[in-house]
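User: Here's a protein and a ligand (magnesium ion). What would the complex look like?
Assistant: Let me lay out the input and then the predicted complex.
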Amino acid sequence: MDRCNQKDGAMLSIVVPVYNEQLNIEKFYEEATKAMQSVGMNYEIIFVDDGSKDTTPLILSRLSQQDCHVRALILARNFGHQLAITCGMDHARGDAVITMDGDLQHPPAMIPDLVKRWREGYDVVQTVRKATDDSGFVKRQTSKWYYIILNAVSPVHITPGGSDFRLVDRRVLETFKLFREHDRFIRGIIGDIGYKQKTISFVAPKRFAGKSKFSMRKMLHFALDGIMAYSKIPLRISFYTGMVSGLLSIGLIVHALYCHIVGEAAPGWTTTMIVICMLGGLQLMFMGIMGEYIGRIFEEVKHRPLYWLRAELGQTGSTDSEEQKTR
Ligand code: UDP
Ligand code: MG
């Protein structure tokens, strides 16, 4: 409490997106506070409520009244994990910002480690999950293959197992704030941003309480965002495959004409079916790929704000955040 208005010394912002985390927030708050006491820096914990339907906003309102280190940004609806993190980062006042999940899968006990690396001079301290205690075989394998494919098609290297648990220096934050795309893959942006980066690994424990908010559909969408935000290779693949299948079709036409001329009555049906199926399938697939890119262009050209707030609780002060909400 007494240190809230401390003006001297560096300050750390901890940004925590929360969506229906009523069972986890208090535990997170206690652990993060304990960790910050051991660090001994001035700090703020910014909870971003991503349109929760449970008592999350009430708990946040109480915490922000009890403790001046706590701020709560209540979004008007659910905008998704990546935009909730973005909102918190836009509003952070610290000299360094740590983003982490509110379900204790990103252990608050690691905060001093991250700060130590920052003090050593690193601008980005990125954590990498070595394993997740509660992730099943399927999730582990899909994650592994996803990163293999992502790195094969993307010009930017994205560390496998990279999470959104990281510390960034104010300089990196200011650069990050210039990136205003909607369908964002923050770990790709930060990886691409440069500066002096350090990777440290950790084992993610099980969720303290509640269930993962990421359905298969959300995971797939997120995975596509990662690939499409950084790579035009799927479009290129469709172009080359289209060219190869076009050449093959020319061969087939020549063959069919030859058969016709020499009078070999081909039964024809099988070949026709194969060709129709193959070309039809490929065309649909590649139209789908193009559609994905066009859909993303459509989203971006509307220039809509990334998120909007219903309320801002806790110490509100002068930040440039009002401008940052919109483009
Ligand atoms: N989250 C969010 N908005 C969403 C989904 C999740 O703010 O639409 C938050 C969630 O409350 C948690 C963090 O993002 O603090 C990570 O979500 P989750 O634990 O469900 O993801 P997982 O660890 O299973 O990948
Ligand atoms: Mg989690």
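Summary: Confidence is low (pLDDT under 50) at residues 318-327.
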